[in-house]
């Protein structure tokens, strides 16, 4: 992410003052601040959902998953033989 220094910040503020005028500048600043706040809130919620999703979808060990399959195959084999 690019770094914005003090000089660049002054240039951006002067351009915003020229474009929006001194009357609208506080409301524009408030709207930008509110938008950043909503973005951070949504980002935190999305990060939390991703952490919960990865915690619940952990892989099952192969041996634990294969035991029911082995039992089913053995049962089917016995039924076919009899």
Outline the secondary-structure elements.
Blueprint: H1 6-56, H2 62-81
Report on this model:
The chain is an all-alpha fold. The chain has two helices and no strands. The chain is rod-shaped, with a radius of gyration of 30 Å.
Structural class by secondary-structure content = mainly alpha
Number of helical stretches of at least 4 residues: 2
Q: Using the alpha-carbon principal axes, give the shape.
A: rod-shaped
Helix content: over 70%
The value of Rg in angstroms is: 30 Å
The CA-CA distance between the termini, in Å, is: 71 Å
Q: Can you tell me the residue ranges where pLDDT is under 50 for at least 5 consecutive residues?
A: none
- The succession of helices and strands, N to C, reads HH
Q: What number is the mean pLDDT?
A: 84
- How is the main sheet built? none
Please state roughly what percent of the residues sit in beta strands, choosing from under 5%, 5-15%, 15-25%, 25-35%, 35-45% or over 45%.
under 5%
């Amino acid at each position: 992410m690019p770094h914005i220094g003090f000089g660049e910040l002054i240039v951006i503020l002067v351009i915003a003052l020229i474009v929006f005028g001194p009357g609208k500048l506080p409301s524009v600043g408030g709207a930008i601040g509110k938008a950043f706040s909503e973005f951070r809130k949504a980002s935190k919620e999305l990060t939390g959902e991703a952490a919960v999703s990865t915690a619940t979808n952990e892989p099952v060990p192969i041996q634990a998953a294969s035991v029911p399959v082995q039992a089913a195959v053995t049962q089917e084999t016995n039924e076919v033989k009899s």
